Amino acid sequence: MNIKLGEGVAGKVAKTGVEVMANHTDESREELGYQANYFMSVPLKKEDKILGVLNLTDKEGDFFNDVDVKVARYIASQCALGVDRFNVYRDMRKSENLRVIGMLNSSIAHDIKNLLHIVQSYLELIDMEEGLNPDMQDYINAIHLEVKRLHGLSLDLLDFSRQRVSINLETFKVSEMFTEILKHATIMTKDTNISVELNIINDLTMKVDRGKLFRVLFNLVSNAIDALENDGKVVLSCEADGECVVFKVRDTGKGIPREYLSKLFQPFFTSGKAKGTGLGLAIVQMIVEAHNGTISVDSEEGLFTEFIVRMPYNYESFKELHK
Question: 320: part of which helix (H) or strand (E)?
């Protein structure tokens, strides 16, 4: 049975850290909310931290006394030591596993990135050929897109393995980035009934990490397109809000179940998708927060999903102003 912190005798002991010994009448037992005739509850402590509670009930043939309390304190101290050592061991194992995963991710990501550079070079050579028929050009454009997505995935793995995001500032206009995203989205939605629209309320000049912001918006647009399957609409918009720019990616898809919303940005959470590593949104959040921004999501099942990214349009001046 789970007892909430502060509820019942054990819950109050867990909250206050003060032991309780109860040898009471039926009336006082009812007030305490516990049905045992004789009852003792002792906190498991490590320094000032309460790790749990040791409960003893119905001492046979006698009441609990001060000697019992001393024995219970000793048992509780040994239990607390055991619990604390288990927690330390568990955290060490978790840390070690993350370190190994990080090293593996980093190694794989570097290899993928190097191979993609080679593929990209050959694509550019093919692209320089004259007289390519339109179908062949479409194929080349599609390969360019997939290479870009793979390159983004390799960078995601690197960022996740390092658990940090480096910022390389670049100045550009929002409309330029939106045009690039629309170009890739058009290839992705070819042969579907999906439309991708741009809504630029304020065409700001930004000074942030252009490549990483592209990855954020491209990831969100790609997810929105995947959610629509073959029919629907995706709208990518931006508008100024003080010293920040607000990006929104909204789709008319099936929506996200309410119980999944709080888990979307957790690493490896895929919400049942057939494809994807579950790292995309976790990396998106890392990038946004590294720019002193925020990301949130709103969704209604059967109607829509909308991701909202709020980010300073000048990372350098914003950081200086908010020191």
Answer: helix 315-321
Residue written as tokens 């999944």? Answer: 260
* End-to-end alpha carbon distance in the chain: 48
Q: pLDDT category, 150, cuts 50, 70, 90? A: confident
Q: What confidence score (pLDDT) does residue 182 get?
A: 93
Burial class (CB in 10 A: 0-12, 13-18, 19+), 189: middle
- CB count within 10 Å of CB 222 equals 20
Burial string for 127-164 (b: 16+ CB within 10 Å, else e) reads eeeeeeeeeeeeebbebbbebbbbbbbbbbbbbbbeee
DSSP 176-195: HHHHHHHHHHHHHTTTSEEE
CATH number of 8-91: 3.30.450.40
Most confident of 48-52, 75-79, 145-149, 306-310: 306-310
Q: Which two tokens stand for residue 162?
A: 């390092």
Q: CA-to-CA distance for 288 and 275, rounded, in angstroms?
A: 23
Which range among 33-42, 59-68, 233-242, 289-298 shows the weakest confidence by mean pLDDT? 33-42
pTM over 0.85: no
pLDDT at 52 over 90: no
**Cβ contact 308:297 at 8 Å:** yes
- Sign of CA pseudo-dihedral 286, 259, 268, 303: negative
CATH class for the region spanning 170-321 = alpha beta
E strand or H helix that includes residue 251: strand 244-251
